[in-house]
Amino acid sequence: MPLVSVIIPTFNRARLVKRAISSVLYQDFKDYEIIVVDDGSQDETPSVLDRFSRYIKIIRHKKNMGVSSSRNSGIRASSSPFLTFLDSDDYWFSKKLKIQTEYMMQHPDCKICQSEEIWIRGGRRVNPKNIHKKEGGYIFERSLRLCLISPSAVIIRRELFDEVGLFDEELPACEDYDMWLRISSKYPIHLIKRYLLVKEGGRQDQLSYSIECLDRFRIRSMVKLLKEGDLDKRQITALLRELKRKCDIYGTGCIKRGKIEEGNFYLSLPQVLEWHLIGSGLIQDYHIQPTP
């Protein structure tokens, strides 16, 4: 059994997935398996994957089912105690697996860790803004506003998925935001302060470009997490505050676009949830405070 399973979901990225797979094959660390999930590609991706068939396990979806389904297929097919993910448009530096695996072995209490990454947008390196700055530790509250963990940067102990569940296949986008909230609400996120991968962006085939109004999926994720009832009072306070901010922005935008019913639903959602939480006894005499 390999120590690490590398799961690569891909859809219509023949050229890029070749680069991603190659970046794993060139790792200094060799005790791994590569599982590539072709999510119904209609370009040259299947033939490209066939050329790597000696080195990879291929899972083929008959139709496009989304990145959550692809990652989950890879998780179910894997056999290793440590799981990693590599988006097919990203690629790793050669020491990535060695450094992260050694870290996990040296820190048996660590459930998940990630590394720093280099950002490329439109073929040029860009520096992330301070709001995107990665931090180690308990980052749940900071993670509510935006995603602070990259799938291609993490290594995770298998048993963590037994506890928090797999990726939500009902979310067409922000599925990673949803997963990291579930994890960071329970455990610290360890950070290796070394640049171990390149994360590319700025292309039209990415979900952040092809799906509008991503905040509505973040809102859905936050509501789901509230209803699960596993948050402490401080986490509930932070989540409701950010939920109100997101609902105000999205609801107001809906009304401006003539979607009055949808807009009013989102504008009233935080108050409805507050009443629900008070009624269920999860919080008492609580009122959402304005965002600082």
Q: Roughly how many Å apart are the termini? A: 50 Å
The tally of beta strands, per DSSP, is 9
Please identify the top-level CATH class of the largest domain: Alpha Beta
Q: Name the CATH superfamily assignment of the largest domain.
A: Spore Coat Polysaccharide Biosynthesis Protein SpsA, Chain A
Outline type: globular
Strand-and-helix sequence, N→C? EHEHEHEEHEEHEHHEHHHH
Helix content: 40-55%
Structural class: alpha/beta
Give the low-pLDDT segments.
283-292
Q: How many helical elements?
A: 11
Tally of distinct domains: 2
| Biggest pleated sheet | 9 strands, mixed
Ordered list of secondary-structure elements with their pairings:
Layout: E1 4-10, H1 14-25, E2 32-39, H2 45-51, E3 57-61, H3 67-77, E4 82-85, E5 91-92, H4 96-106, E6 112-121, E7 124-126, H5 140-143, E8 154-157, H6 158-164, H7 175-184, E9 190-201, H8 207-210, H9 215-228, H10 233-256, H11 260-279
Parallel strand pairs: 1-2, 1-4, 2-3, 6-9
Antiparallel strand pairs: 4-8, 5-9, 6-7, 6-8
